[in-house]
Amino acid sequence: MGIVVIGAVFVDIKGYPTAQYIPAGRNAGRVTQVHGGVSRNVVEDIANVELRPTFISIVDQTGISDDVIHKLDRHKVNTQYIRRTEDGLGTWLAIFDNEGDVVASISKRPVLDVIGDILDEQGDEIFSDCDSIVVEIDMDPKILNKVFYFAEKYHKNVYAIVSNMSIAVERRDLIKKTACFVCNQQEAGIFFSEDYEGKTPAEMDDILQKKVALAQINQMIITMGGEGAVYANNKGESGIIPATKVNVIDTTGCGDSFFAGVVIGLTYGKTIAQACEIGTRLAASVIATKENVCPRFLPEEFELDV
């Protein structure tokens, strides 16, 4: 099954100004619509490194969902565990400024209950032969408990990604069971109930070392945008990975691609520092384009032994 990814599918509707962006004003520009969602982005990023992951998710009955599945199939994602429901597709509406950063957004989350049914009916066949598991840690606890049940049953590593930290912060007990937890600097502040705005990478490195030990988290990575990322684990290892300098076109999906690179690296034998470097390279390739996902790579480019 390769890497199994579990989560939601969204449609991203993005607006870009053609002139100087005016907050609270009427801005002329262009509007695009692309397939999105944290997990959907991650699974396509993994597939774009020719690793053939499996996606467990739901979509609705519309033609947009047909397009989502067909695109994933083309990218060699195993889509046999995607089911259709009436409210299975989420929507994310975002406005970007002239620097390519999101200045406003609204999202409508899909109802993911059917994922629990998929796990009940086909969990053993899905997880017994997979390489690792990726899950949105802010999903319903009933679904998460089933994921961790199978992970423990078949001795598989779980990697947690966040789409809503305000919800994910309630899952601290499950985050302790993950092989690695990844979030951005603002989300880390919410998770640890502190304000990290303006902290330098060196300061965040020191903070994370202490927090990982106190919270009994196996491994954690905090992304810091243009300043790179910091990592720490419960073995006392920590470090700073600088960002790759690129011309910013659109930052949507760069965090997802960074996470995908980390999961790829850790799943296939890399150290946490090496995994962060893979994530940084994938993220840079997304920032420099208008796509939500990375372009095609080969595993050999990252010296992966798959």
Automatic annotation (TrEMBL):
Top-level lineage group: Bacteria
Gene Ontology terms for molecular function: kinase activity
UniProt keyword annotation of Transferase present: yes
Kinase is among the record's keywords: yes
Sequence ranges assigned to domain Carbohydrate kinase PfkB in this UniProt record: 3-289
InterPro entries given in the database record: PfkB_dom, Ribokinase-like
Record's keyword terms, sorted: Kinase, Transferase
Protein name (Swiss-Prot/TrEMBL): Carbohydrate kinase
Taxonomic source organism: Intestinibaculum porci
